[in-house]
Design a protein that fits this description.
- By secondary structure, this protein is mainly alpha-helical.
- It is built from five helices and two strands; from the N terminus they run E-E-H-H-H-H-H.
- The chain has helices at about 25-35, 45-70, 80-100, 100-105, 110-115; strands at about 15, 20-25.
- The protein has a two-stranded antiparallel sheet with strand order 1-2.
- A hairpin with a 2-residue loop joins strand 1 (about 15) and strand 2 (about 20-25).
- The protein starts with 12 loop residues before the first strand and ends with a helix.
Length: about 120
């Protein structure tokens, strides 16, 4: 159920003292990185790091969609083709991690690796 803190009713939500809540993993990670004066978003590789982060988020989104399909729909109303499409997204993303992102995965810690 949506709340005043997060109208989308999703997690995560970061509640802050005397400030508006922050929600969405990407927003919260940017906030925490800024507060810590961290380097999870290195300027010299920013677009690669953000794209890698989006790849990780996409894998998670596809996996969650598959779980919801199996847990929230009666068996006779499930769509196996949708589940297979989500698996295909995950497989393509993992293949891309192995081919395109090997160097980035071996770089100093960044948000893409965390995602």
């Amino acid at each position: 159920m949506p709340t005043t803190e997060n109208p989308l009713g999703k997690i995560p939500t970061l509640l802050r003292d005397n400030a508006a809540a922050l929600y969405d993993s990407r927003v919260i990670c940017q906030f925490l990185n800024a507060r810590a004066v961290g380097n999870l978003y290195p300027e010299d590789a920013l677009w690669d790091v953000l794209t890698l982060e989006a790849t990780g988020d996409g894998i998670c989104d596809a996996a969650v969609a598959m779980v919801y399909e199996g847990r929230t729909r009666p068996a006779d109303k499930q769509f196996p083709d949708m589940v297979e499409a989500q698996w295909s997204k995950i497989e393509r993303a993992l293949d891309t991690l192995e081919t395109r992102w090997v160097d980035q995965m071996n770089a100093p810690l960044n948000i893409g690796q965390i995602a």
